[in-house]
Amino acid sequence: MSLLKTGDALPSDVVFSYVPWTEDKEDITACGMPQEYNASKEWADKKVVLFSVPGAFTPGCSARHLPGYIEKLSEIKAKGVDVVAVVAYNDAWVMSAWGKANKVKGDDILFLSDSETAFSKKFGWAQGERTARYAIIIDHGKIVYAEKEPARDITVSSAEAVLAKL
Q1: I want to staple 48 with a disulfide (CB 3.0 to 4.6 A). Which of 83, 102, 144, 155 is the partner?
Q2: In the annotation, is 31 catalytic?
């Protein structure tokens, strides 16, 4: 059961952890310091695509889920999307390294940590201690698309599915 529905407002307390990308720390072995990312504040006046994966560097997430968003990024942005972000239960350093390993630079895609799966659990979208696989489109603070994968396949949370809903 999901507590998150189309038409809902993004809660005012959505905070993730992340390591901001910087050119001087673009090498995978260079580590920045994690910071809070107040998504509620940052996304209040933006169109956002947020997708979730069970874990960075896992086979399905690395080979099938994230690559679609990297490949379709310009098409997604062309639909007026200001922010594309991926979230997983991994800590901010792992998420940062995953972005670097996939050669994502700057803030093309934000790699965010859902610490203790707090965000995902709030909506019943966690799988044990991991985040579930899902996608959400937020338009100026309102949820306009929210789908959790019904099984192990990547269907409703794929870049193609999200692109079709933009």
Answers
A1: 83
A2: no
